[in-house]
Write a structure and sequence with these properties.
This protein folds into 2 domains: about 45 residues; about 240 residues, MetI-like (MetI-like fold). Helices cover about 75% and strands about 0% of the residues. It is mostly helical.
């Protein structure tokens, strides 16, 4: 019996190792591709370990160090502030909607649900952001439009619905206000779902380039993703022009176009990879409990 358990454990461990490698291999391929020369990538395709490793892609991508550093700084600021605001706003709204005695609770739930199904369109959204909220060329333009999410609200609401009502009643008998109950009792109990929302919100803010494209014209205020997208667009434009100009074609002969794209993935993915281990243990619990309660 003990020998069977040992063999079974070995098989499970072997399966986990193989599966982990299968999941990790695409990222290793991206890292390897970012270190390849243009000619090697064309002739033999991307490899995990290139024959002639080079940092040309990173030199092109990070050629203007001050600009990239400024983009990193803006993106980190937007991600941190936006994630904190998202937790505060969606958390409070989720708590309010979880109160069964709240008058008009069904109407409010329906109102939030409708925002998941319908929207006013891009033009009204743009006019509201620029003409009424005056977000054009401000850091808030990269934060406020993504703060509220109906999905986050329902996820948190469903989790709060599963908290015993006796805790709320006991706190109210002791004279606690609703905000005190929310911040001192409910929020500490909601660590799994809060960690899940933190991960999703941080990913959303970190990867966002759309708000920068629509609302930011000042080049010194563009987030990292927008800067990198602009660089890739410029390289693709030059590659298109190289078909009409021999001079441009000669200039781009040593530029690893696909390698720059791979390097961009590595540069932008690194910080998020560092965040994930801290919230991974709460991730599945937050998703499952928040999805089935209530």
């Amino acid at each position: 019996m003990k020998e069977r358990m040992t063999i079974g454990r070995f098989i499970v461990h072997l399966f986990v190792i193989v599966f982990s490698f299968v999941c990790l291999y695409p990222f290793l391929l991206v890292v390897g591709g970012s270190l390849m020369t243009n000619s090697e990538a064309i002739n033999s395709g991307f490899k995990v370990i290139p024959d002639e490793p080079t940092l040309a892609s990173y030199q092109i991508l990070l050629g203007n160090g001050a600009l990239i550093f400024n983009g990193y700084k803006i993106t980190v600021f937007v991600t941190v502030v936006g994630t904190c605001l998202s937790i505060a706003v969606n958390g409070m709204m989720g708590y309010v909607l979880s109160r069964k005695h709240l008058a008009g609770r069904r109407v409010m739930n329906l109102y939030v649900l409708l925002t998941m199904l319908f929207n006013g369109g891009m033009v009204p959204w743009y006019l509201v952001c620029t003409q009424y909220l005056h977000l054009k060329d401000t850091y808030w333009a990269l934060i406020l439009p993504s703060v509220v999410s109906a999905w986050y609200i329902f996820l948190i609401r469903n989790y709060f619905t599963g908290v015993p009502e006796e805790l709320w009643e006991s706190a109210k008998l002791d004279g606690a206000s609703e905000f005190t109950v929310f911040s001192k009792i409910y929020l500490p109990l909601a660590t799994p779902v809060i960690a899940t929302v933190v991960l999703f919100a941080a990913l959303g803010y970190w990867n966002d380039w759309w708000l920068g494209l629509m609302l930011i014209d000042d080049s010194t205020m563009q987030p990292l993703q927008m800067l990198l997208r602009t660089m890739i667009s410029n390289i693709q434009f030059l590659q298109t022009m190289s078909q009409q100009s021999s001079e441009v074609q000669a200039m781009l002969a040593s530029v690893p176009g696909d390698g720059v794209k791979m390097a961009m993935v590595v540069v932008t993915t690194g910080p998020i990879i560092l965040l994930y281990p801290f919230v991974q243990k709460y991730f599945m619990k937050g998703i499952m409990v928040g999805a089935v309660k209530g």
